[in-house]
Each structure stands twice: as C-alpha cells, then as structure tokens.
Design brief:
Elements (H helix, E strand, L loop, with lengths): L2 H4 L18 H8 L4 E2 H10 L5 H4 L19 H14 L7 H4 L3 H13 L7 E5 L5 H13 L2 H6 L1 E6 L2 H11 L9 E5 L16 E6 L8 E5 L7 E7 L6 E7 L3 H10 L1 H8 L2 H13 L4 E5 L1 H13 L3 E8 L14 E6 L2 E4 L10 E4 L4 H18 L10 E7 H8 L13 H4 L4 E8 L5
Parallel strand pairs: 2-3, 2-5, 3-4, 5-10
Antiparallel strand pairs: 1-7, 6-7, 6-9, 7-8, 10-15, 11-12, 11-13, 14-15
Length: about 450
C-alpha cells in the first residue's frame, strides 16, 4: 500500500497551492502572551486560531467534486490514480474527504446504517460535527428522501455543528442544491467542545456523525523521565529572550488529563510501580538504564464525548477515522503526524513544536480506547444525575474496518473499477468505523 493512499483523506496527494508560512514571532505574541500552554491548548491554537491557525490559513480546506466519479468506467488502479492526479491538479484544494471521493455511496452507507438502527416511531434527528463541504449531509438527506418512509424525511432534522465560518456557508450552499432539504437543515456555527453552545440537554433520541473529526482534536502529552518516576504534564512555553518555544514538565494537576489517564489505565501502572516486590528491581533498573517515555492522551475526544453525552444523553454515534498512521517519527504512544505542504511537497516534522499555523496535526484513533471513553462518558454523565449505578451498561458498540462497514451497509459494487479493483475497500485499510447506540437501560 502506498503511503499517500493511506493518508488520502487528510493530506493532499498531489500539487496544491503552497501554504503560507508565518514567522515564529506570531507564536510568542498571539498564542502565548506570558503564559505557558498545556499541549492541548497549543495544538488547538496551531490548528484553529482564527487568525493564525492551520484551518484558517489554508487556501481552500475541503475539495468538492463537481460530479461523482464513475468507477465502472475506470480500468483499474493505475487509471484511478491518474484520474485523481488530474482532479487534484484541477482543484485548488488541500484534500478530498472519502465522503467526497465516493459520493454519494459513502454517505449512503451511513444513511442506511442509521435507517436500519433508528427508532422510526420518533422524528429522526441527526447532528454532524464538522460537516466539511456539506456533501455528507446532502447525500444522507437525499437517501432518506429516496429510500426512507415519506414521514421519516418529512419530519427529520439535520444539524451541522461547524466551527469554520467559510465551511458553514459552503454547507448551506451544498445542501441547498435540493431546496426541500433546507426546510430540515441548519448550521450552527460554534465549537462542539464548548458545553455552553449546547445550552441545555435534549432528552430525545438522535444520531451524531463524526467523520475525520477525532484525528484533529487536541491531545495532551505526559512525560516520565524513567521507569519508576510519576507521570508529569507537558506544557509549552516561550524560551526567555527568544522566539523559540520549548517543553516544561509539571506534576499532574489537570482534571481532564487525570480522567484520561484513568481511562487509559496508566494510573494502574503507577500503582504497580509502588508495590514493594517490583519497585526495588525497577529502581535499580531505571538507574542503570534510564528510559524517558511519553504518551499522547486523547483529551479532546474525552472532552467532546463528555459534552455530547451531557447534551444528547440518548444519542447514537457513528465515527470514522484513521486507526493508524504510517511513518510517524514523533515519539510517544498515539503520536501524531505533523505535516506541511510547501511548493507542492509534503514535509513531515519530527516535533509537534514545529507546527506554527502552516501544518496539519492529526492523530491516529485507538478505537478500543474510543470505545472505553464512550462507555465511561455515558456512565459519568448518568452518575452525575444519580440515575444509574456503575454496573449498568448503557451502550452497545461495535468497531468495523471500513471495508466491513461498506459491505454491510453500502453498495460496494458502485465503487468497483472494470478490473475488480475497489479503492474504497482496498485502499482504506488504516481506517475504521465505530458505531455506538444506547441500550434499553436508558431512561
């Protein structure tokens, strides 16, 4: 499998307009002031700062194809890649998402999964977090209009929660290509991680869609100088009398990091270190062979799911993202790729500190950990209301490879070329789907 195919949903495969570089001084003045930042806040600023963030400064973040690709008219893999080469050179964009490359079939599969699972006795309500160009929303609503009972389409509501003003506008334009969709569709321009934006909890059943969202959510970094020392938080701060930034380490005190450490299970490792029968041997070994280590924590994912489970306690969830990334050189479990497109060439950085508004930062999703976070957040939300015990299972969930998901819910023949090659099934080996629905124990 070629490297660019595995990264195709988030990085440009071909020539694109070079991204603007910013002098390092903007970091010290705009991001920091005089205060250090937790790594998650550093990453959030590097990606989403309205003036200097990556998503604010790329010329056109999400590509839109004028028409669907006719896969049955393409001979095979080589011809498909040549076709993509022409498409990328024709469009001034940074990437095409899979929902765009395989429209309408990719979104149709998601719509079918929803239709098979939803309680159709109540009006269907769908939230999409980070709706891109609006293609997924339009295609899902197309599918419901064409395939669902008429009352389902007539009573449905589709809400896009979008942080980008330009993408929010684009989504309305895309969905508005079918005028009747606009009666059922709206865009809320806000940050989904901000609890106040949801205003109040909605007790009704609904669906939440997260496509290529988790990989760009902020993460935190923790550090341990050897095998027996406790984990420490990593902060980013300015180097005095310099334009450079560096890491500093502090004892664990952030509540979100502590909750994430507990879910990951690293706190159990800490307890094991203190046991007398192993601690002595570890101390001797750590002095002889000290080995610093670090781990990336999906605190942005935890924060988002905590908010979603509070705001939408009866939500069903469909998420799709990278399960692993190739050629990662940054240290640590679940480490990201940090890449800059310059003069048509993608350059991977060896440190996340090199991300200065011109770089994409994206993480692999540990889907088993995602499942743990989802179940934890459902319990955490319900326990706050004193409505359930810890032993009550509130979610049913499944993890599927993209090919398995498409074979179960989609029409894989529609993305098959003449010689049998199917890019949707064959080239997205490092992506998965996560489906999670509430159980009958939900009240």
């Amino acid at each position: 499998m070629l490297r660019f195919v595995m990264r195709s949903t988030l990085l440009p495969l071909y020539n694109a307009v070079p991204l603007r570089r910013f002098p390092l001084i903007f970091f010290s003045t705009s991001f920091f002031g005089d205060n250090p930042l937790l790594v998650r806040d550093f990453i959030h600023a590097a990606l989403y700062d309205p003036n200097h963030g990556y998503f604010s400064n790329i010329s056109s973040p999400v590509g839109v194809l004028e028409k669907s690709i006719r896969f049955n008219q393409i001979q095979g893999r080589d011809a498909y890649l040549q076709y993509l080469d022409k498409v990328y050179k024709h469009h001034d964009i940074v990437w095409f998402t899979p929902v765009e490359l395989f429209k309408p079939w990719y979104a149709y599969a998601i719509a079918e999964a929803i239709l098979r699972t939803a309680n159709l006795s109540v009006p269907l309500k769908i939230y999409e977090i980070g709706g891109g160009s609006g293609t997924c929303a339009k295609c899902i609503m197309d599918y419901m209009m064409l395939n669902a009972p008429e009352r389902v389409y007539n009573s449905m509501t589709y809400v896009s929660v979008e942080i980008s003003p330009s993408l929010a506008k684009r989504q309305l334009e895309t969905v508005g290509e079918v005028s009747t969709h606009l009666d059922r569709y709206k865009v809320e321009q806000r940050d989904a991680l901000d609890k106040s934006g949801w205003r109040h909890a909605d007790p009704n059943p609904c669906w939440v869609i997260l496509l290529e969202v988790l990989d760009n959510l902020p993460h935190d970094l923790i550090y341990c100088r050897d095998q027996v020392s406790p984990w420490m938080e990593v902060w980013v701060e300015k180097v005095q009398e310099s334009l450079q930034v560096s890491e500093t380490y502090r004892p664990l005190q952030d509540a979100l990091i502590s909750r994430c450490i507990h879910i990951v299970g690293l706190d159990r490792d800490e307890k094991a270190k203190g046991r007398s029968f192993v601690s002595a041997a570890r101390r001797i070994w750590s002095k002889a062979f000290p080995k610093p280590c670090q781990a990336w924590l999906p605190t942005g994912c935890l924060q988002l799911l905590e908010v979603l489970h509070w705001a939408l306690p009866k939500m069903s969830l469909i998420a799709s993202d990278f399960s692993y990334l190739p050629d990662v050189t940054i240290m640590g479990d679940r480490a990201p790729l940090v890449s800059t497109k310059k003069d048509g060439i993608t350059v991977d950085h060896r440190s996340y500190l090199d991300a200065k508004g011109d770089s994409d930062i994206f993480f692999p999703t540990d889907f088993t950990l995602l499942e743990r976070i989802d179940h934890h957040c459902s319990l955490f939300s319900r326990e706050k209301k004193n409505t359930t015990s810890k032993s009550t299972k509130l979610r049913r969930s499944i993890i599927l490879d993209t090919a398995a998901f498409m074979e179960e819910f989609g029409l894989p023949l529609k993305t098959k070329t003449k010689d049998g090659y199917n890019p949707l099934l064959d080239d997205f080996k490092n992506t998965k789907f996560y489906l999670s629905v509430p159980t009958h124990n939900m009240n």
